[in-house]
Design brief:
Elements: H1 5-18, H2 29-60, H3 64-73, E1 83-88, E2 91-97, E3 102-107, H4 114-129, E4 133-138, H5 139-144, H6 146-157, H7 174-184
Parallel strand pairs: 3-4
Antiparallel strand pairs: 1-2, 2-3
Helix pairs in contact: 3-6
Length: 187
C-alpha cells in the first residue's frame, strides 16, 4: 500500500526537524591565511594593470628631485641600472633594483607629516617582507647634495667603494712636522 502524498510530506518535514543542523567547523588559522592569500592574489591581479598605468604616468611626470637622480643613474649599465617608478606589490617604488633587492624613495615635504610617516613605515615593512631594503632621501638632499646621494646608492649596490682612510704617521722631527703640515693642507 502506498502512502498518500500529503502524509509523505509531513513525515519528511518531521524528519528534517528532528535532525540536528550540521554546522561547519571554525576555520583554522592556516585556512584563514590561505583565504587571505587568495584574496590578495585576486586583488593583485585586478590592480596590476592599474598600477602599471599609474607607474608609466609617474615616469613621465617625475618630480624635479627624482629627475635629477634619474639623470645620474640612467647611464649605469646592466645590473646597476635602476627601473624608475616600479610597481612592487601594492606600491610603486621611485627607483628599484630587483637583482640587489633595493628600493630608493625620494620623499617630498608631505612625508614629514606624522600620518604620512606612519604610512611610510608600514610601506617600508611591507617592502622588507618582500625582501627589499629601502633607502629614503628628501627632495632637498637630492637637489642640493645630488652627488652624495648617488654615491650612497652606488656604495649600497657595490658600484662605488667607500674611500679608505689615508694613514699619515705622526711627525717625529722638525722636517717631518713641515711635511705633515703640507700633507694636511688641501691642495
Amino acid at each position: 500500500m502506498q502512502e498518500p502524498p500529503a502524509r509523505f510530506k509531513e513525515r519528511q518535514k518531521f524528519y528534517r526537524q528532528s535532525q540536528p543542523k550540521q554546522r561547519h567547523p571554525e576555520p583554522t588559522p592556516a585556512q584563514l591565511a590561505k583565504r587571505r592569500a587568495k584574496k590578495a592574489k585576486k586583488w593583485a591581479k585586478k590592480f596590476r594593470n592599474k598600477l602599471k598605468t599609474w607607474a608609466s604616468e609617474m615616469r613621465e611626470d617625475m618630480t624635479p628631485a627624482e629627475a635629477v637622480i634619474w639623470e645620474y643613474m640612467k647611464i649605469w649599465e646592466g645590473k646597476y641600472r635602476p627601473v624608475a617608478q616600479r610597481p612592487l606589490g601594492k606600491y610603486i617604488a621611485d627607483f628599484a633594483w630587483r637583482k640587489f633587492m633595493l628600493v630608493v624613495e625620494v620623499d617630498g615635504g608631505y612625508h614629514l607629516n606624522p600620518d604620512q610617516r606612519a604610512k611610510d613605515k608600514i610601506r617600508e615593512l611591507d617592502m622588507k617582507r618582500m625582501g627589499y631594503s629601502t633607502l629614503r632621501f628628501t627632495n632637498e638632499q637630492c637637489l642640493e647634495n645630488t652627488w652624495e646621494v648617488v654615491q650612497i646608492i652606488g656604495q649600497r649596490l657595490g658600484l662605488f667603494k667607500e674611500p679608505e682612510p689615508v694613514y699619515v704617521p705622526p711627525p717625529i722631527n722638525e722636517f717631518d712636522e713641515m711635511l705633515f703640515a703640507a700633507v694636511k693642507k688641501p691642495c
